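REQUEST FORM: STRUCTURE PREDICTION
Request ID: SP-0412
Submitted by: Lab K.M.
Chain count: 1
Length (residues): 149
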Amino acid sequence: MNIKQKLYEACQTAINNRLEIIESTIKEIQESLLSETKSSAGDKHETGRAMLQLEREKAGNQLSEIQKTKEILYKVNTEAVSKKVCLGSVVYTSKTNYFIAISAGKLKVGNTYFYAISASTPIGKLLMSKSENETITFNKQDFKINKIL
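STATUS: Completed
RESULT:
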């Protein structure tokens, strides 16, 4: 299994873990709404229901974001090779290594660390369409792109 495939799978695991947490939260909110309906009355009841409705809406928005993130991840082709940084690229720089896919944080493959980042993040935008040996400046630091897979 190649490095891109390993990073892709780590991103899938991260997004699936987030999805499980959100689905669990939504289920808990639904159960709380049902028990609120059965046990409360008056102003306190209305306030409790309103708070739970807001929580459900927030969790629903998070669920929607996760679905969008999954769609982006599905577009990543781990077999593709490009001379320029694009979605799915593994980028080795003089400072840090990146996997351009989704924002999934720090990932370790073998003894090497990578940051899985979205192409829409500030550093992702700077890296996109760059080639090997180009230098970018981010947060007043210069990075040289050493290798693109």
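NOTES: Residues 28 and 72 are 28 Å apart (CA to CA).
Reviewed by: T.R.
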